[in-house]
Every structure is written in C-alpha cells, then in structure tokens.
Amino acid sequence: MTKDERIDKLLNCYSQVDRDAIGIVYKTAFGESPTDNDELRKWLNDMDRLKESMKSRGLIVAQPDPGGFPDVVFKISEHGLDIVEAGGWLMHLKTEKQNERLKENKENRKFIITTCNTPHF
Fold this sequence. Notes:
Blueprint: H1 3-14, E1 20-21, H2 22-30, H3 37-56, E2 60-62, E3 73-76, H4 78-85, H5 89-117
Antiparallel strand pairs: 1-3, 2-3
Helix pairs in contact: 1-2
C-alpha cells in the first residue's frame, strides 16, 4: 500500500471519529500492532511519518490530551473533512495533478502566442 493510500485510509477513519489517539485510528485502519520488536518499531515509525505528513498538509489537528501528552490525540481538520467529502485523498491528488497539467498547458500556450506575435528583426 502506498503512502498516499495509507493517508487516504487514515483520513477516512478520522472522519468517522470526533477525536482519537493516532495509535487507535491507525489500528482501526490497518489492524493490530505486531508483536515482534523489529516489526513494532517499523509500525510505530510508519505511524509517526503518516501523522506528520497529515499534520503538515493540514488534514488533521492536534487536540488537548487529558493525560497531557502532546501530539497524541487528533481530529480531522475542516480541510481534511472537505477532502473526504469530495472523494478522499487519492481523488484530491488526482484533481491537483490535473489542475497542474492544465495550468502548465495554459502557460505553454501563452508562451507560444507571445513568441509568435513578437516581431523578429
């Protein structure tokens, strides 16, 4: 499963809860944590990377944790909820890519028109 597919799945899980610890949502999305120490370390690192990626993109926001631990409890942001309601993270990425291609094509056409209309001496 790609990173973006994992983000899509986590974002959908977050859209179904008010707020929760990242570990609980991760387990809901991907199953129980491994018991082997090396696999557990990889699992926790993956969870942290996905959490940071989602936070930096404004998809989730940290919530005050009753235990006082920072960056443990999160909820989906308005931006994240908008993305889920519009079809999910993978659809969002596809739309962004299409918009970028359209922008590039428009800029290329402007360049060609400008170049063609410029007198050559």
